[in-house]
């Protein structure tokens, strides 16, 4: 066919079903997007249905993988030549930027899923040329196949890079499992252009803490701060504030932040010598085969590479772990200059020629080293300066502090240590891993259930307490959940969403039962929910056993980093029809976010909300959405009455609604938008209608029990084969 004579009709829906234009949100942008609950389903996963990644990882030849990764560090390729013949700096940056997207606020981002392979991360300006690093690793991935995930390989490459350059790393854990498409649930910011002004994500640019939650980076497309300074304006004092804020949102303290900044720039270099650089991978032409940032002037020379626009190394020996970074930073004065690409960078004043690092391609040429604005912040900020002086006085302490911080950075989103595999998993329990002692499984579960049933606690009290204990789980970084019984410790015991008075009453009854039986409090809290549900099922005239798996442990106060647990506090819980205050985000969107973090499907979210409403476990005893005259019985009444056209729906003040009898006009029930969305959203209504059918009352109970059990066991990684 003549390419200049394209027919007007075509059987393929170009720009429609085959592109992003197919999304219904194009037409109805305020519609509740349920796709985030199904983004990594079976349809996207190419692995066999019976594939078990944990089993595959256990059979991996760890030492052979490590040796192969370490060997490729010095196997420079002409299509992307290594600086000084060593890919260490590039691989460290790949691992760092993969892990560095993590933010503590919602636990999203990070290296645990290999998400840097997909948009938008694969095309962020900050991730320039990391597509080359991944392609260099492909032979290793190809060789070891399914057992070696991209997520593991990317972080392992950073570890092996540091080891090959002389650092003793703290450890490494295999066990990350890849996703197979972009993450739709991560909010990276509202900006529509890369590196937009920082004012777009701050209430007050002078106050770094006003960065909008849950964001951590100060510009769209960066993982941390702008290397040239806030909004590209060099000011190390200002940059120090933003370094402190963004790293704190990754759960790093000042010492860890300084160690990571200094240790990260102890090796490698920045690149800013290219011209006419092509578009990022997602915008590149098809013949680039997934590569972006094409550099026609590279010419097989590392010195011609272009990434950030800054140009230069931070140390005299950029392929060795040493103290050269501190020697440069503190032994010389620095002045602002422009890189060959026109970026602001700091360069030394009157540095002797023989003290400068050599060119990455031609060792006969010496180049000025550089510092970014964040590096200068280590010198001008009094707190960071003091920490750096401590590091300089004790190189071993610096190396150990960095190694631990690097381990934390690259493993923070893997959850408890039970998820780590391989010979290099540290034996030490670290508080940021939320350690929980192993629980007892050898106690009489039936006897404990009998004592709970006779305790005088109502089913609603037992169910609400179990739910509140488990609902903190976040699949994003595998934190929270019922294991550990953190709900009885600060800060959780005082959270408004946990109704402290009711919680204290229930714990006061359950704790002696646990002690007498030799069971953990964590187990007995969940078992209490089991007892309450079975009573509610029996009261409804049905019969169903609620599965229970003993073995949870009880964390101690010493094992609980109370400050880091603050971010788990729920500000809303649509499942119990509560939110702390009014927010710009609709209550049903907050419920959707919580459901996604819990790993629920849309159908599971639907059945849980409907069941919890009729059980009467709303926060504070609220009657909103309790569409039943049989409160406390596990029936499908919520769905039956929601879909019954005998009633009409009317908004009233405060964002609530009245459900009125059409004939009499009498108010039958009240509701929130979190209730009515199950009738207004076409997808959720389809699920609601399933559970409202006369033939699905038993299915409703079965599905509720299955979804409930899924939430109760969400953090039971020990139950996974």
Span between termini: 55 Å
**Could you give a short account of the major beta sheet?**
3 strands, antiparallel
Strand order of the main beta sheet, please?
A: 7-8-9
Output mean pLDDT.
95
Q: Shape, please? A: elongated
Q: Classify the helix fraction into a percent range.
A: 25-40%
Unreliable stretches (pLDDT < 50, length at least 5) are: 12-16
Number of helices, counting only DSSP H or I runs of 4 residues or more: 22
Structural class: mainly alpha
Oligomeric grouping of the chains: single chain
Structure description:
It is elongated, with a radius of gyration of 28 Å. Helix 14 (500-517) crosses helix 15. 36% of the residues lie in helices and 5% in strands. The protein has 22 helices and nine strands. Strand 3 (334-338) and strand 4 form a beta hairpin. By secondary structure, the protein is mainly alpha-helical. Strands 7-8-9 form a three-stranded antiparallel sheet. A two-stranded antiparallel sheet has the order 1-2. Residues 12-16 have low confidence and may be disordered. The protein has helices at 53-58, 62-72, 88-99, 130-144, 150-164, 236-248, 254-264, 324-331, 373-380, 382-393, 395-411, 445-453, 459-470, 500-517, 521-539, 562-565, 587-597, 602-615, 637-642, 673-680, 682-692, 697-712; strands at residues 269-270, 312-313, 334-338, 344-348, 572-573, 578-579, 647-651, 656-661, 667-672.
């Amino acid at each position: 066919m003549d390419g200049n004579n394209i027919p007007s009709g075509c059987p393929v829906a170009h720009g429609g079903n085959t592109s992003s234009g197919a999304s219904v949100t194009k037409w109805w942008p305020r519609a509740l997007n349920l796709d985030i609950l199904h983004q990594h389903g079976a349809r996207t996963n190419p692995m066999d249905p019976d594939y078990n990644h944990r089993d595959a990882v256990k059979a991996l030849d760890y030492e052979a993988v490590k040796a192969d990764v370490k060997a490729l560090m010095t196997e420079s390729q002409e299509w992307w030549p290594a600086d000084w013949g060593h890919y260490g700096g590039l691989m460290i940056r790949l691992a760092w930027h993969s892990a560095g997207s993590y933010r503590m606020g919602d636990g999203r981002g990070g290296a645990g899923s290999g998400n840097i392979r997909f948009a938008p991360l694969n095309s962020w300006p900050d991730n320039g040329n990391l597509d080359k690093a991944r392609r260099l690793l492909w032979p290793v991935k190809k060789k070891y196949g399914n057992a070696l995930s991209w997520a593991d390989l990317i972080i392992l490459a950073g570890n092996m890079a540091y080891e090959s350059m002389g650092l003793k790393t703290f450890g490494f854990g295999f066990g990350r499992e890849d996703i197979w498409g972009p993450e739709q649930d991560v909010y990276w910011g509202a900006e529509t252009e890369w590196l937009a002004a920082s004012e777009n994500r701050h209430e007050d640019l002078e106050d770094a803490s006003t960065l909008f939650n849950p964001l951590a980076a100060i510009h769209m497309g960066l993982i941390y701060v702008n290397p040239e300074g806030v909004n590209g304006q060099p000011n190390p004092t200002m940059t120090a504030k933003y370094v402190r804020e963004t790293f704190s949102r990754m759960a790093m303290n000042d010492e860890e932040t300084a160690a990571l900044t200094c240790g990260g720039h102890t090796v490698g270099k920045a690149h800013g010598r290219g011209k006419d650089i092509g578009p990022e991978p997602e915008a590149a032409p098809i013949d680039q085969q997934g590569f972006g940032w094409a550099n026609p002037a590279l010419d097989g020379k590392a010195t011609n590479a272009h990434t950030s626009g800054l140009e230069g190394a931070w140390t005299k020996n950029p392929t060795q772990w040493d103290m050269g970074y501190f020697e440069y930073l503190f032994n010389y004065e620095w002045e602002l200059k422009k890189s060959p690409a026109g970026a602001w960078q700091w360069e030394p004043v009157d540095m002797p020629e023989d003290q400068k690092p050599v060119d990455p391609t031609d060792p006969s040429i010496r180049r000025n080293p550089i510092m970014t604005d964040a590096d200068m912040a280590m010198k001008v900020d009094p707190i960071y300066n003091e920490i750096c002086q401590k590091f300089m006085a004790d190189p071993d302490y610096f190396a150990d502090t960095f190694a631990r911080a690097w381990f934390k950075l690259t493993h923070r989103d893997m959850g408890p240590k039970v998820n780590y595999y391989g010979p290099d998993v540290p034996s030490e329990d670290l508080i940021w891993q939320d350690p929980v002692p192993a629980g007892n499984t050898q106690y009489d579960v039936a006897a404990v259930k009998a004592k709970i049933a006779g305790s005088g606690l109502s089913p609603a009290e037992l169910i609400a307490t179990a739910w509140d204990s488990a609902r903190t789980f976040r699949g994003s970084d595998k934190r929270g959940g019922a294991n550990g019984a953190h709900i009885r410790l600060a800060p959780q015991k005082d959270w408004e969403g946990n109704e402290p008075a009711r919680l204290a009453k229930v714990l006061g009854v359950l704790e002696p039962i646990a002690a007498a039986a030799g069971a953990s409090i964590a187990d007995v809290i969940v078992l209490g929910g089991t007892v309450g549900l079975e009573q509610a099922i029996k009261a409804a005239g049905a019969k169903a056993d609620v599965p229970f798996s003993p073995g949870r442990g009880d964390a101690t106060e010493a094992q609980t980093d109370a400050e880091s647990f603050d971010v788990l506090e729920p500000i809303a819980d649509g499942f119990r029809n509560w939110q702390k205050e009014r927010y710009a985000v609709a209550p049903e969107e907050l419920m959707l976010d919580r459901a996604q973090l819990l790993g629920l499907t849309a159908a599971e979210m639907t059945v849980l909300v409907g069941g919890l409403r009729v059980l009467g476990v709303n926060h504070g005893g609220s009657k909103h959405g309790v569409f039943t005259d049989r409160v406390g019985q596990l029936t499908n009444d919520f769905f039956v009455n929601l879909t019954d056209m005998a009633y009409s729906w009317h908004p009233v003040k405060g964002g609530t609604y009245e459900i009125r009898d059409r004939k009499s006009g009498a108010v039958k029930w009240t509701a929130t938008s979190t209730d009515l969305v199950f009738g207004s959203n076409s997808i959720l209504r389809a699920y609601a209608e399933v559970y409202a059918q006369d033939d699905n009352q038993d299915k409703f109970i079965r599905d509720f029990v299955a979804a409930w059990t899924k939430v109760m066991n969400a953090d039971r990684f020990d139950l996974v084969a």
